[in-house]
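Subgroup meeting minutes
Present: P.N., E.W., G.H.
Scribe: E.W.

1. P.N. recapped why we're keeping a running log of single-chain structure predictions: easier to compare across weeks, and new members can see raw inputs and outputs side by side.
2. G.H. added today's entry (305 aa).
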Amino acid sequence: MIETGLAYAKINISLDIISKMDNGYHNLKTIMQSVSLCDEITIECNSGTGSGIGGSSGNDVRVVDAGRSFLPNDERNIVVKAAKAFFTYTGITGYSLKISVKKNIPVCAGLGGGSADGACVLRLLNNILGTNLDRDTMIKLGSTVGSDVPFCIFGGTMLGEGRGEILSELSPMPSCYIVICKPLFNFSTPELFKRINCKKIKIRPDTDGIITALSGNNIQGVARRLYNVFEDFLPRGKSDIEEIKYKLLDNDALGAVMTGSGPTVLGVFDDKSQALRACDELKKDYEETYLSEPVGKINFTYRSI
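Output recorded in log:
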């Protein structure tokens, strides 16, 4: 059987860091949103011998890179990690998987591209093999693969707490257009977290205000409260972040913010023509610029071939 699913990118409408946990991770409070920018994952599932690349629990897992040459073919690739986690949990053996990954989401961008891919693999395998794992089980399984994977399994608009795996569903983000712009440089997420001193965070997102604006279908109220505390701890000399934000705002964005641990910046628009103009303007300097829209909760049903 061959099935294909879409792995939707994730943006952070707001991101707050509450405290550092005893285990070294940080306690977050973030509002996450799925957007239409997506990778495409295709899984071909057949009877197998369990001896191939990435094999685990008597299953072969092979990745085919559809468009980029740097995707690893072992557990460094989150789709392999997700497949192995699924088979380990369910105890299913005797299958050979060929996973094709068509990348559209920029890598190392704070857009959850890897997490979205891993989440899509879990959804597809749950569907293909008829395991019917429930929500809580999928969240638990996803959290073993990556912190953002539980959100990416379900998508839509959610409040994430803890490492991001404690999820509460929110009112959908109002209809709007989101320009996503990734500069050429990358930030190291572990290094950024090392720079965080929770006691020195002076400005925090108005998370409750965003939740109220979402419930009122008020895109202006959401956009003017966009905030990410990571921006206050960025290395010096990364002026592109502010430059991109200024360009978005100068082109009539309702609000702009860095997403995740960066370096990608997004702008929210209520007018498509303005969003297109901003997208075209930013593409002159930043090739990885995209026009997207919010996506609601993800449907678990995929087309079979």
